[in-house]
Design brief:
The complex is a heterodimer.
Chain A lengths: L1 E7 L2 E7 L5 H8 L18 E4 L2 E4 L11 E4 L13 H8 L9 H14 L5 H7 L11 H16 L1 H4 L10
Parallel strand pairs in A: 1-5
Antiparallel strand pairs in A: 1-2, 3-4, 3-5
Chain B lengths: L9 H8 L21 H6 L14 E7 L5 E7 L1 H4 L4 E6 H4 L28 E2 L5 E7 L2 H8 L3 E6 L6 H4 L13 E9 L2 H5 L4 E12 L8 E6 L4 E5 L4 H12 L6 E4 L15 H13 L3 E4 L2 H7 L3 E12 L5 E13 L9 H6 L10 E10 L13 H18 L4 H8 L8 E2 L5 E2 L4 H12 L1 H14 L3 E11 L7 H6 L8 E7 L5 E5 L8 H13 L6 E4 L17 H27 L7 E4 L2 E4 L5 E3 H10 L13 E5 L8 E11 L5 E11 L6 H20 L31 E4 L17 H18 L13 H8 L5
Parallel strand pairs in B: 1-12, 10-11, 14-15, 20-21, 27-28
Antiparallel strand pairs in B: 1-5, 2-4, 2-6, 3-5, 7-15, 8-13, 9-10, 9-12, 13-14, 16-17, 18-26, 19-20, 19-25, 22-23, 23-24, 26-27
Helix pairs in contact in B: 12-13, 12-21, 17-18, 18-19, 20-21
The chains are: A alpha+beta, B alpha+beta.
Chain lengths: 171, 801
Amino acid sequence: MTRINVTVDGVTYEEDVEPRLLLVHLLRDRLGRTGTPIGCDTSNCGACTVMLEGRSVKSCSVLAVQVDGQDIVTVEGLASGGTDWHPMQRAFHEEHALQCGYCTPGMIMAAIDLLKDDPDPSDEAIRKGLEGNLCRCTGYTNIVRAVRRGAHSMSQDPEAAAAGARSAEEL
Amino acid sequence: MTEEIDAGMVARRIAEDGDLSEPAPGRNEVGAARRRKEDARLVTGRTRWTDNIQLPGMLYVAFVRSPMAHARVTRVDTSAARAMPGVVAALSGADLAGEQGSLPCAWPVTEDIVLPDHPPMAVEEVRYAGEAVACVIATDRYKAADALEAVEVDYEPLPAVLDMVKALEEGSPKVHEAGNRSYVWKFGTGDVDAAFRDAPVVIERTYVQQRLIPSAMEPRAVVAETDGDFFTLHSSTQIPHILRIMLAQVTGIPEHKLRVVAPDVGGGFGSKLQVTAEEVILLLLARRLGKPVKWTESRSEGNLTVHHGRDQIQRLALAADADGRLRGLRVDLLADMGAYLMLVTPGIPILGAFMYNGIYKMDAYDFTCTGVFTTKMPTDAYRGAGRPEATFAIERLMDELADELSLDPVDLRRRNWIGHEEFPYTTVANLTYDSGNYEAATDRALAVFGYDKLRAEQADRRERGEPVQLGIGVSTYTEMCGLAPSRVLGSLSYGAGGWEHASVRMLPTGKVEVVTGTSPHGQGHETAWSQIVADALSVPFDDVSVIHGDTSSSHKGMDTYGSRSLVVGGIAVVQACDKVKEKARHIAAHMLEASPDDVEFAGGTFRVRGTDAAKTIQEVALAAFAAHDLPPGVEASLDSEATFDPENFSYPHGTHLCAVEVDTETGATRIREYVAVDDVGNVVNPMIVEGQVHGGIAQGVAQALFEEAVYDAEGNLLTTTMADYLLPSAADLPEFTTDRTETPATSNPLGVKGVGEAGTIASTPAVVNAIVDALRPFGVKDVPMPCTPERVWRAVHGGGS
């Protein structure tokens, strides 16, 4: 067992973990952060995407021991105060960019990360940027629309946009 | 053909009219692009997926699965596994043999069907790779996974049976003792021999509908618990109600002692319309161990053991006159059942039997389907279930016929389709299509697509011999959905009815609870049903909540599949609302000291005709609750329920047009335009409808271009992961342009038609027709699916079809 300290959605945890424990299992089974789901076992689907130190990672491909001392934001930590949705969450709702919603947490996190490199992406850039996140329901057309809308909202409201990368101190 | 017009797309209309998603004042809720009630928990991660459930003392189950396609199980030794830390139990099929029963098949399509036993866990023989042979139960999922390694199983290999044609040959190794032919099902009308005799044109083709893996994003998961008397099973299922009945029958747990819950379910597409081995075994383990048990599949496990879809060989012949008028159609199918018959396995190709004639008139039709056993995962419902295969066949044949006769494929279709003035129309397959307007949908699609301009570009590229050719694919589809009239299901030997149930409860504060027997897993019923009820009872949209997916709270239903929820379940909701209003009218009349005959309901208010005396429905609800002064013989409740059994199927239709650029040097394809004009009758929520069409098209395109479950020569599945089984990403698909025409259904009071499967049914032939169309100058008449670059290249260079 290895002891780790990790901050998840603004809460600091100290946990003893097996070296092989996946981050996604730490989040789901140990910390109860079940908002981040698992869709595959080969890191293809992206459903488990979270922010690690402000950048997106597939939490099925990170070991819990690797996040010692680091800051994680999941979809559950995006809304400030728990109620005021992140612009990307609102955009997914407005554009009907989800149906079953299983890929949505990962898709939203990946979309937010995409905008960090390219705040005003073309449709093609959005499609390429989300290549690592699979959705079986929407056919992606509305997801592209949502990311476009989210990008526009975030350019209007940089403060909300920063929420995806905020640390515990800022909460 | 039709001049290009400004494309008034659904999406733009939604964006312009419905930014706030509320209907304009005085407008109905039905028809508004309401944003979904479901979204709040889904975009914030406050979801209730089955795998999220953690119960005190819960144990984790993992399965040892056969690495061989076909073998005798000669020894299973679980003792070493049982000795490992944290392992509570380890069981073989033999350990469960006395109680596990046989997984059900509810659709034995013929009297003499071969319907083999299907033990949830193999006891003596395994018949597909991935079949469970043992399970371990441990205190966490890692320990359970570790213990799998310690289970020893000896197999004595038996020959795999993988090819349907060879499986039917004399002397083939057998999957089951009774042989590899499960059934032969025949259907026909008219004199098909006469139709083909002296026919000026006969098109004969063989098409292969490759095996697909449905791939809902949420892997299956099951949690079972019991207090020793009463059992609760949570499952990622589309069918909690059917599942409860079937599990009671299989396990002997009495139906009234079993509650089945479908919590948030992450997609299904037919794959969760099943009674699975794992659901049965988890119930048995909960009973045996007295502890809550959970199993969640890995994706690799799921690709092996979630039922597959399609997998048919279609031998087709179409006879026509020289002017293109259709005379008759012969269909001879081989349908791969896989190793066992699961819930509706044998019925899937039969659902297609009535659809091979599509939207066309013809004199005669003959259909034969042979169900074949192989040593592969069983097939069963996958989005469209039989109808995509049928639509692919006829729409591909129509393009082939057009080519043979040098006719424009749209023109050929016009010569044969049912005119809008001919509805209701009884087809050669004996279905009565209630309404439709193929002309209107097609004209609109051609205009939005810019058909003439693209044809001109195609001609130009051909003339210049460009390496990248352009192809245009046409698909004018209809389908039968809204499953289903119970009498029809009975006549097809299905084991249950096709009705749906709803109840509507007026609460004392005037709020409304709707209990539905449908079981949504992404479709947005909570939103759409709220819109329907808001209009029916004139209550605010936000005052309605919808309860579903739990047999203890929504006690009666037939669940969600076959594009049935709105056209059957939604109508039950309407009828329950009608009963609420009728009950309320009597109490309102009493409150208003008037005769019920003089009281009318409008705008949420019961009013004595010609006076100002009025009571709102909320006031009546409170009065019914208080019950201080009710008319004699009237019960203190407005709550009502209804069970609706449709008289007919639902027949959405539409025209999908696809333009594909095909690189003849590399075989690469790129969809340049995709236009879908669908007619699903009246629409409750255009935003949700558009989403269903988008997703449906994507899955149909995926069959055409990307997906195939591949078994090797020994019967091992090669496409067990999402790295091997190519689900399209955003980068693989184009933007879809959608629009609608609205020809109301005449078979239900809302005038609505099903939409869930339409896109999938329409799009596969549109894409393949486009690819073949691009390659006609090369003499190409077919490219087998999925049309990968290699297959396209081989077709161009003569090595393919």
